[in-house]
Design goal:
globular; 14 helices; 43% helix; 5 strands; 331 residues; alpha/beta
Length: 331
């Protein structure tokens, strides 16, 4: 029985799909020390590409984690949040709202796998699947092992670095996945007073997220990370801002603060939707000043149990060094 269970563990660890577009961010939560994360960043890839957790630690001592997935709709974020509280008790949750502003379908399949395969099996996961996948398609994603069990021809080196004895390295991953491209963008000039565009399903789960964090005593901060925003996006953010006002929580649209954070539209974007590494540093520094002013967010530098964030800083620094000397494998 022990040999059988060990074999299943090894096979699952090796064959499971790995991806820094959401799967690793979800799976990485389980490697973190219990109740060690003070600030959790949630939402779409605008979080794990734009929020530099290494900088937040190095400059402000903020123990933050990017707990996000590509194009993650709010109904999946809600169940992510419930999963989070099994292991962490964050002081602050920062939620980016690009998904409800840009993506309007009740079932969003393009990147849905990135938001499923990293989560452990549980009743919570089944509930998430029930609202995220049409019944006739659920077996395309569940059970996860049935989907990835035949990956033998696709295995790479990283597939053999996912075991319990790799715990120290796994713990040092904090979700941040920088982009290294440089693509000049045209600065958006958007002015709109309209309040519209939030679907009924998105509004339902936004209010559920707000209610859940209030119940848990966690401060919720709604944001829009900087990107090339459209007038339709802005109208949805206006509607979200009104909901935030009703609920008594902050909403910060960082698309209104390009100059304050010093964004360079010639150099700081990877594409029209994501900042690159250098842009993420500027945005994160600006966000970090806001979080640093929050009395609930402590400076953990030098405290016992937080060495993994120091390792995280070193790992990101090595990525930058690899980019600069041209040895990065997949820039």
């Amino acid at each position: 029985m022990i040999l059988f269970l060990l074999t299943i563990y090894l096979a699952s660890s090796i064959l499971s799909i790995k991806s820094e577009h959401g799967i690793d961010q979800q799976a990485g939560l389980y490697w973190q020390r219990e109740n060690s994360i003070d600030v959790v960043m949630m939402g779409t890839s605008h979080i794990h590409c734009d929020v530099n957790t290494a900088l937040l630690w190095e400059k402000y001592g903020i123990a933050a984690y990017d707990y996000s997935g590509a194009e993650q709709p709010l109904w999946m974020t809600y169940f992510y949040l419930k999963e989070l509280y099994k292991y962490q008790k964050p002081e602050v949750v920062v939620l980016d709202l690009y998904a409800p502003a840009r993506l309007k379908d009740d079932y969003q399949y393009k990147w849905i796998a990135e938001n499923i395969y990293g989560m452990r099996f549980s009743f919570n996961k089944l509930q998430m699947l029930a609202v995220s996948v049409e019944p006739q398609k659920i077996f395309n994603y569940f059970p996860s092992f049935a989907v990835y069990h035949n990956r033998y021809d696709d295995l790479e080196k990283e597939d053999f670095q996912n075991f319990w004895w790799d715990m120290e390295e796994k713990e040092s991953f904090k979700g941040y996945t920088p982009y290294w491209g440089i693509w000049a963008q045209k600065r958006p000039q958007i002015q709109s007073e309209e309040e519209s565009g939030l679907t009924k399903k998105s509004e339902k789960y936004l209010r559920k997220i707000i209610a859940y964090t209030k119940k848990k005593g966690t401060e919720l901060v709604l944001i829009s990370a900087p990107y090339i925003v459209t007038s339709q996006d802005k109208e949805t953010y206006n509607q979200i801002e009104e909901i935030a006002r009703q609920e008594g929580i902050p909403f910060i649209d960082y698309n209104e603060s390009y100059d304050e954070m010093g964004l360079d539209f010639e150099k700081d974007f990877n594409d029209d939707s994501h900042l690159n590494y250098w842009g993420s540093c500027k945005f994160t520094d600006y966000l970090g000043e806001f979080l640093n002013a929050c009395d609930r967010v402590p400076d953990r530098r030098g405290q016992e149990g937080y060495a993994s964030w120091d390792v995280h800083v070193d790992l990101v620094a090595r990525q930058l060094e690899s980019y600069e000397d041209g040895t990065m494998e997949d820039p």
